[in-house]
Amino acid sequence: MPAMNLSQKLLSTHMTAPRSLTKDSEIEIRIDQTLTHDITAVMAYLAFEALGLPGVRTEISVSYLDHNLLYIDNKTPDDHIFLQLIAKKYGIYLSRPGNGICHSVHLARFAVPGKSLLGTDSHTTTAGAVGMLAVGAGGMDVAMAMAGLPMRLNMPEIVKVHLVGKLRPGSGAKDVILEMLRRFGVKGGLGKIFEYAGDGLKSLEVPERATIANMGAELGATTSVFPADENVRAFFSSQRREAQFVELSADEGCSYDQEILIDLDAIEPLVACPDMPDNVKTVREVEKHPVRQVYIGSCTNASYSDIKKAALLLKGRKVHDDVNLTVSVSTRQIFRKLLDEGHIADLVDAGARITEFACGACAGIGQAPATNGVSVRTSNRNFKGRGGTPDARIYLVGPETAAATAIKGVLAAPSEIMEDLSLLADVREPESLPINDNLLIPPLANTHDVEIIRGPNIKPLPVNTPLPDRIDARVSLKTGDNISTDDITPAGAEFSSMRSNIPLIAEYAFFRYDPAFVARAKEMKNSFIVGGENYGQGSSREHAAITPMFLGVKAVIVKSLARIHRNNLINYGVLPLLFANPADYDGISLGDELVIEEWRQQVPSGVVRIENLTKKAYFTAVAELSGEEKDIVLCGGRLSKVKDAFRNIKERNE
Ligand code: MIC
Ligand code: SF4
Description:
Elements (H helix, E strand, L loop, with lengths): L5 H7 L13 E4 L3 E5 H13 L9 E5 L10 H16 L2 E3 L6 H8 L6 E4 L13 E4 L2 H8 L4 E4 L2 E8 L8 H12 L7 E6 L8 H9 L8 E3 L4 H9 L19 E6 L6 E3 L7 E3 L10 E4 L7 H11 L9 E4 L4 H9 L2 H8 L2 E2 L19 E4 L15 E4 L2 H10 L13 H4 L14 E2 L29 E8 L6 H4 L4 H4 L5 H4 L11 H8 L2 E4 L12 H8 L2 E6 L4 H9 L3 E5 L13 E4 L2 H4 L4 E6 L4 E6 L4 H9 L2 H16 L1
Parallel strand pairs: 2-3, 2-5, 3-4, 5-6, 8-9, 8-11, 9-10, 14-15, 14-17, 15-16, 17-18, 20-21, 21-22, 22-23
Antiparallel strand pairs: 1-7, 4-19, 12-13, 20-24, 23-26, 24-25, 25-26
This protein binds alpha-methylisocitric acid (MIC) and iron/sulfur cluster.
């Protein structure tokens, strides 16, 4: 057996057929665990229901109610009742509101080294912190994984991130991943797995690794992995799950596609400036604008150590008069520990507002910043409008910098508050945490009598029709680079509560990016979207594919595509095309009429010829689709294809 790196081990132990691990070859991965959360779950479970199976076929599936807990009207509570009943009926764990954020709870209570996890959320990668193969996907792909079907993947490039040294007090894991973003940028991780190794790991505890694995999503990476070593063992022990710990690491002498070195000693407090996670600068060099809001929370940076460090900085001090500080601890378990140890009291005494153990502000669900306001956050995304206010400016930092900023009222490093930072260096994860799983409802043994209740907002899953062989349509939108799914399907409580109603949420497609898009697309009936690099980056929300499809978008023609969004487009029968020559992008204008003749004949060759009738010109685009993906697009989407396959199997068995 040749020496393998950890990623190769995880992939090869889950491959459904003996295929090659060479870069770019298509592989299929068996999925052991799935997770969903309330604002992506309804679509996923509607797809799962449509398959007519009696229950999930995974080892563990968990449905989290954690994102939208504001309940601004009937829609979300109705969705939550639906999801609770679906969990009962199909053998799924349900994590109730108040238990915590999906990735943090999953890491603590369900993650297992060496297993695979597919989740309807881009930050599912967080579980890579304990040596899991954890990948984010759209709801349709997760529904199929729950039905026992493997996940398709092009074999990623494996990049070794060799960590040496030790972080200095005041710098943290967030600064490490911001350094990665500074080096690679938001599309630098496309088609890559980042595998962390080296002596520097000794000082990085699991929640710190989780911060780094989590924000691998901002690099566009397929996932990130860490070895399951002594620090992971200690984490499992604190969760009273020692029996589930398995030691895992790369083989001695294994190789990688690329290797980089990060010296942890050299990392200083960093900040991602508006409006992109890779717009990274040092805290020292950023202009000191008055800060109106500080938010310490999210699945990225609201662990025990994160909050304790913030509390130590705030203890005996006061939140600046112009700053609103909210703190959302990631899980109930951690909150309880911090409460018992008095850290929550220190935060409250300093003037912090403690909010729910939920996603909340991170996804624009509450705590929207003021007009043009500066908000400093420990979360992972600062795309325009992400906080709910289109012109707000969001800066992403670690919890130490966030706490210092809350005190100073301008962006500040922890050393500006505390001369001797050794107090922060002593903060370690606790040896034990109060375990209380009473908000986790386990699967039922007998599920026959469960009746599903659907609120009026839950509309049927839209199913696309196969594309006509001649596509003649106009360009309804031309975008720039790095369009995020937040641009396509806006974040926020109001919009998130519409996720189970496609006709309604489709009315807000590109609402903050181009409010005229919907009317234009409707008027054109069928249309194309033309875009730049890294189109569809960010969240896994498949609404960003479904709503344009619902409004008649037949294909997106772009310079490059984010992985999850590309799969979501295919799953809903929208043709993803890449400019063969990126310069052709410049020759297309909004409203141009484009024609693709006989695309069914053209797609197998991978090259599609497109005529621009308006400009009287031709250009070519590449359809990088595997055999199965071509079939899916030809059928008009994955559900139609898979339903036929399941029906055939059922009929054969009858
Ligand atoms: C996010 O952080 O953007 C979200 C909200 O968690 C999304 C999921 C969604 O939009 O439903 C994600 O990361 O995938
Ligand atoms: Fe929730 Fe924010 Fe994490 Fe997304 S990034 S899962 S919204 S906390």
